[in-house]
Amino acid sequence: xxxxxxxxxxxxxxxxxxxxxxxxxxxxxxxxxxxxxxxxxxxxxxxxxxxxxxxxxxxxxxxxxxxxxxxxxxxxxxxxxxxxxxxxxxxxxxxxxxxxxxxxxxxxxxxxxxxxxxxxxxxxxxxxxxxxxxxxxxxxxxxxxxxxxxxxxxxxxxxxxxxxxxxxxxxxxxxxxxxxxxxxxxxxxxxxxxxxxxxxxxxxxxxxxxxxxxxxxxxxxxxxxxxxxxxxxxxxxxxxxxxxxxxxxxxxxxxxxxxxxxxxxxxxxxxxxxxxxxxxxxxxxxxxxxxxxxxxxxxxxxxxxxxxxxxxxxxxxxxxxxxxxxxxxxxxxxxxxxxxxxxxxxxxxxxxxxxxxxxxxxxxxxxxxxxxxxxxxxxxxxxxxxxxxxxxxxxxxxxxxxxxxxxxxxxxxxxxxxxxxxxxxxxxxxxxx
Length: 433
Ligand SMILES: Nc1ncnc2c1ncn2[C@@H]1O[C@H](COP(=O)(O)OP(=O)(O)OP(=O)(O)O)[C@@H](O)[C@H]1O
Hints:
By secondary structure, the protein is α/β, with parallel strands linked by helices.
């Protein structure tokens, strides 16, 4: 069977322009989510996992912006760097203003009006071209309004703290009905059933024509409520008919996370992005939520991006893994490749820092020494080089490209560059790696 990617991220760069400078949160990340699979994004705090997925949802707030790269959903480009283009255009306009001012000053003395007008025209023409380029690029991208159709409907997101997504002043019922009615239409079958009850022939035929053209009405309040209860049942909320009438604070933490998953799934998204959905929960509840996500994946086949800093959790649920560090992609592969044949020293470091039961005893954990790079001033080479036990000169100078290990595994480490002389020198100096 052909593999189909439901999400593709290519060379994504997302930054925050703070008063201290540009925080380069995501620097050239490329990965894909196969339809029907669960992709785990793993990495320490601050590695850019959340910013990458917020970029997919286009939920990056000021002063953040996607600078470049592409995000495709089902083959369609959904990313936009309009905000960054606006920023660049503002800088260009400022430069134009300064150049025109300087010209004016110059001609105050020379007083050659004709030459002044000619030079002025040249400057305006030059900047007009640049600004037109920006305008054309911005116009070719999906607008915010068009993107809103994807958010919730096609791609939904759940967060670590469900209270940030649930409104405390509305009941679960109100919130679910509102979201479902915004996104869900009745089935064609149901619409035809209703249309066939219309006695006036002309009206009936017109209605059927509309239905066949895909014009379906949105679900009504009663239908939305039934759907909400079905989803609460699916996620394991007991007595959903009663619990639906309650407010979020009347739910326990685990139940709130379940309710949020029900809310996200009730719109039948093709992709669910779960950002550390179990981190705030205690261990037993964590396991239950993971079980639930697995069940949903089995039963509905929703593709999932699962973000976590815990490699152990990844093993429970994911089919594929992306390892991020310092805003960059370090390694990607299938779950078996990342667990049994990790190639990047950072991935190996992560392995050593997860608890493993060794004959009933907990093995001593080895945290990776050092701290992640400052993304305001990221190193020009591999972001892991300052903590890497195998770092070579080349690692400090240049970040490695992704080297292919197998058809499904790629790793961004110079040690995999068989042709590089440095690798041989390194091996000679330190023995086999
Ligand atoms: N609004 C913001 N303004 C400035 N910098 C930001 C903002 N949001 C995120 N960042 C920076 O972007 C970088 C990546 O953050 P991100 O939240 O993606 O990391 P993460 O891997 O998801 O970490 P965590 O596991 O802690 O959520 C961090 O250095 C962070 O400080």
